[in-house]
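User: Some background: our group keeps a shared notebook of sequences we're curious about, and every so often someone picks one and asks for a predicted structure to add to the entry. Today it's my turn. The entry only has the sequence so far, pasted here. Could you supply the structure so I can complete it?
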Amino acid sequence: MIHVIGIGAGSTEGRTLEAVHALHNADIFVGYTTYIDLLRGDYPDKSTFETGMRGEKERCAEALQLSRSGKKVALCCSGDAQVYGMAALLLEMAEETDEIHIVAGVTAALSGAAVLGAPLSGDFVVISLSDLMTPWDRIQKRLQAAALGDFVVILYNPYSKTRTVHLSRACDILLEHRSSDTVCGWVRNIAREGQEKRILTLAELRESQLDMFTTVFIGSSETIVHMGRMLTPRGYRL
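Assistant: Of course. Here's the predicted structure to add to the notebook entry:
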């Protein structure tokens, strides 16, 4: 059996109970080194198989092999395993006889929004700015559609060593359709040591230097700052 587990943003408190139970019952953890490191404090005696960045296929192949040999495997991802995680790849590589259970997790869009306030009370979209597997022209079209639809936009992977201008380009697309003082926010290291947050305007966001551990929130035309928190009103009459 393989449980594909989203371990949340970082802290134990941010995991679903189902994820906690599956981790406890697993014989071995398989995952990206950074995510395995987040689990060591809670599960110091668990066996592990880990790889660095871009070792996704290797991790899935190892998880399948271990499961077929009789091991209870926890294939570990951050956030939710279905949201830019390993669940789809594992299912693609699996055979009909493999036992696989996808465990729901809490993606950064939700945990980061809670840190900022309540920006996701209406319709929203999540877009990754990583063009490793999605061409940049397709990402641009998705940003344009989100801007035209006046969605709250959550951006994953806003920056890397090879993607230093993608965030500013994304902001430029959104600035074609919404005001420069649109309420935005970002959260870095959600639920981990050194967590940081900031609420700022879209114009200020465009000039920001963030990193790959930051999740970005761009408000709709209705998003406001209320008592220091980012808020998209639901529309209830007060």
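Suggested note for the entry: Helices lie at 17-25, 33-40, 56-68, 87-93, 108-116, 136-148, 166-175, 202-206. The CA atoms of residues 131 and 137 lie 9 Å apart.
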